[in-house]
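Attaching the record inline, Q. Sequence:
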Amino acid sequence: MSRKMKNKVITNLHIERIASEGKCLGHHEEKVVFVTGVAPGDVVDVRITKGKSSFMEGEPVKFHEYSKERIDPFCSHFGICGGCKWQHINYDLQKTYKRQQVLDQFQRIAKVDIPEVMPTLGSEKTRYYRNKLDFTFSNKKWLTIEQIQSGEDFDRNALGFHIPKMFDKIVDVDHCYLQGNISNDVRNELRTFALANNLSFYDIRNQVGLLRNLIIRTTSTEQSMVIVQFGENDQEGIQKVMEFLHEKFPQITSLLYVINTKGNETFHDLELVTFSGNDFIEEEMEGLKFRIGPKSFYQTNSEQAYELYKVARDFADLQGDEVVYDLYTGTGTIANFVAKKAKQVIGIEYVPAAIEDAKINSQINGIDNTLFYAGDMKDMLNEEFIATHAAPDLIITDPPRAGMDEKVVQMLLRLNAPKIVYVSCNPATQARDVALLAEKYDVEKIQPVDMFPQTYHVENVISLTLRK
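Structure, as predicted:
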């Protein structure tokens, strides 16, 4: 983009529709303009921030007309922390767009014949629906322009979320509407305690400081797990923090900590210490119990996860005599959920700790027709593995956002399973994989499921049948 275009203000731009990644778009002089923080039907002045020959990006600087689709955001942090992009858009339109997003990705990327995309299955809860949140301690609290210009001396310690595109700036969260239960109380009380006791908040740039990260997990069974990451091995400070949490919140059923002096916040390769309670929490679904450890993945919207897995099970249409491969099985939630309707379920997952949880989940539920293996999918799912196990009648795959490795897709094509049920948190990579699977498979059903209200993310379940 030429320098003269940057910071140029386009006046009276009509916002036409929602685009990708939560942005909306309009047209100016035959160019697409992507705009953040607006809704379809708004008429705004837009300051251009960047662009190329065929499009521009910008931010609103003045609203002339407000859309009828617009609603008032309910969170004081909306527009700052980046956790919720769509609080200003009514929920029915959110669901409509999420369906359109799936349709667009399949038409643009997969380029295969598809059935009608079913309406998005909405979440009953649109607030307090998450069961897991990560908060970051920082000595670089984000300040508003007004605060900076005031000349006042502000305390820069914060506990909250990263500002989008600013890795070292943290918005100090007062109340978050994503997670209920004890989440807000634990975060706010711990911050107050830390400030009162002069405990150091982490310096992200210099990687020093005691308090680094706070993870809170909750379940529909009212169990809770709190994990504190410490950036220094200061046993006196660690003991002080953990004793405070234990005494202030005796209802915490799993209280753990980890000392992390690495360059990032991941702790899958680190030892966690159980300060009090169990080293796991339990979720329930249709009478089944699922044990979740500190390193385990579990869908972050528990109630909607049940709806998601029911869709997957319905698409599978198991009759009781099938061998099922459950790829990217995690803690074996889907595997154990469908096991009673299958002859055998074989789950594969990269994280060893998750596989141990999957095995325990089968044991505590009296399920004896599951097998679980830990390893990289593209290495595990090979000719030798297939030769030592029964061929699959059904494959269920629920990969991470990056989708399936091409080697895995090629193996699925060699397996010739009559049906594949593909659960995805990223319709774009799902559509890419479907384009490859289209060599042998047809898309039979498509069901978007909204796991994350107030955001542009959508889960999608499809069933594919082997072409005869």
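The mean pLDDT is 94. Residues 132-285 form a domain with the OB fold (Dihydrolipoamide Acetyltransferase, E2P) fold (CATH 2.40.50.1070).

More tomorrow.
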